[in-house]
């Protein structure tokens, strides 16, 4: 229970009786001299709420459930409101008025500052919104050369055009390193490398740092193969473009083996030039890996399981992921087995 005693508010434990027993000591008290009191509606949804701004910037909120039912509360609130323009029930008369006025002025300043917080936030949000909407689009900045795409996450066609190469330099660099010292590594492309080292390699590639794959920090070939798989996974559009995925799935369903291979070959040669060239280099490399399967234990089927979802996927249809995975693996395995016939320039079909 709260009781107004002179210049202070005294807080007593709640009792069944409405009045405090004589001699009871309050749990705590608050000196109200120099404070400001005002009704407030924005601080609470409850009725009859006012706030008291104390000398040391503490805020006290008092709530009275029903003023009409409790005249004592009403008198207390009335006294507090009346005191907002003068010292609260100051009976001493000995204190200097100027310090009290300065304290009240500082309290008023604090209250005004609090009330302006919400409007200030709105102004900041409005300015940020205008700033964001006025920013030029990423594509515009890239066209002007102000922002350059990184290697990882860059569109294949854009990357090849930027590097003036048919196959991304990083892909060729990884392939050369694996064929130089990792074709017989157990579980090549299936075993994961250290992710922290892979991310370090990615950072250097994205920032166009000079890369030496013979450096001791890249001695684990699984780090190189892990980075190469990450490169293909993070392409905005997979090596087999989205608009070709369903055509490849339809081709792999063909019952006649020769017709199936012929259909897949036509689809491969119909791909955009960067995709076609990168696929040719990549599958010829994977064929060499399979040729060392007695040492590395990576058969054509094992490679297909690893690279099926990495090199091709549906753009929107995620409900049939399990079914698609079967087709992805079958397509990669067929291209791998028929690699020489599919990518032989002499067998190139007219487009």
User: What is the mean pLDDT?
Assistant: 79
CATH architecture grouping of the largest domain: Orthogonal Bundle
| Proportion of residues in helical segments | 40-55%
- Overall shape: it is elongated
Alpha carbon gyration radius: 38 Å
Number of domains: 2
Question: Secondary-structure blueprint of this entry?
Answer:
Elements: E1 2-5, E2 8-11, E3 28-31, E4 36-39, E5 49-53, E6 59-63, H1 71-82, H2 97-115, H3 117-134, H4 138-143, H5 156-163, H6 169-181, H7 195-206, H8 221-233, H9 242-252, H10 257-269, H11 273-291, H12 293-296, H13 300-311, H14 321-337, H15 339-343
Antiparallel strand pairs: 1-2, 2-3, 4-5, 5-6
Helix pairs in contact: 6-8, 6-11, 7-8, 9-10, 13-14
Explain this structure:
This protein is mainly alpha-helical and 351 residues long. It has 2 domains: 2-117, PH-domain like, CATH 2.30.29; 156-347, Phosphatidylinositol 3-kinase, Chain A. The protein is 52% helix and 7% strand. The protein has 15 helices and 6 strands. It is elongated, with a radius of gyration of 38 Å. The N and C termini lie far apart (91 Å). Residues 66-71 and 84-97 have low confidence and may be disordered. Keywords: GTPase activation. GO terms for molecular function: GTPase activator activity.
